[in-house]
Structure formats: structure tokens, C-alpha cells
Amino acid sequence: MRGLGILALLLLTASFLYTGCKQTEEVVKESEQAHEEAKEQYEDTISDKVAPEVWSLIQTEDYKLKWQTWPGKKNTYVNKLAYKAIQNKDADFPIGSIIVREMYGYEGNLVTIVVASRNGGNEKTNGWFSALYAPDGQVIEVREQPVKITP
Fold this sequence. Notes:
Blueprint (H helix, E strand, L loop, with lengths): L1 H59 L2 H4 L1 E2 L6 E3 L1 H9 L9 E7 L5 E9 L9 E6 L5 E5 L8
Antiparallel strand pairs: 1-2, 2-3, 3-4, 4-5, 5-6
């Protein structure tokens, strides 16, 4: 009789442990999923916040007067890090590289400015932030597709 009581107690304990483990697995899965969703939302909103900062940076640094032009590319300016990578024929641009390309219309007027900044971190874009701006700095589009720019 005592043996049956112990056996029943063991079965009951095992049942509780099994149920608890299953619930814990579900909670962990839900937590991981919520984390991934929050991460995606953060990455989507951070781009909108980075765009004005990047524009401000290239204006502060006066890219058109103080940066080098990319050899062989018309209306394309690069900061010192990017220019060094181009000169050294590196495989990739280092983090901190910035490339600015001015796009002109048929009448010779500045239409848009494309800026690519190697910030690292965002795997979807190979670590690049890229945006299209109006000549006055208004953000037209933040690009989320993968970017592959090589020196």
C-alpha cells in the first residue's frame, strides 16, 4: 500500500514537471518571437532617425568642398576612410565610410542626392545605411535593400 502511494506521488510529480517544462518552452518561444519583432520594429524606426543625422553630418563636413571625388565616378564624393579604401583597393569599405552621389537632371540641375554610410550592424543591408535626399535635405526614401558597394 505504501509502495502504491509513493508510486502515485512520483507519477504526479513527473506529470507536474512535464507540464511545467512544456509551459516554460512555450514562454521561451513567445519571448524570443516578441524579441525578434521588437528588434525589427527598432531597426525600421532607427533608419528614419538616422537619415536626418547623416544629412546633418555631410553638410557639417562640407562634403563637396572637403571630401575627395571617387576616381572615375562623376559627382561622387567620399570621406577619408572611403577614399583610403579605394586607393588601397580594399575588399570592403570600413565602418565609418560615407559616399555621396549627386544626381543631376537633363537641364543640369541637382535633382537628388544619394548617401551611403557604412555603419555596421544591420545584416539586411550588409552594414550600410542608404538614403535618397532632395537637394534641401528632405528625406525622400530610406533604402532597406541589401547594399554591396566595393572600392
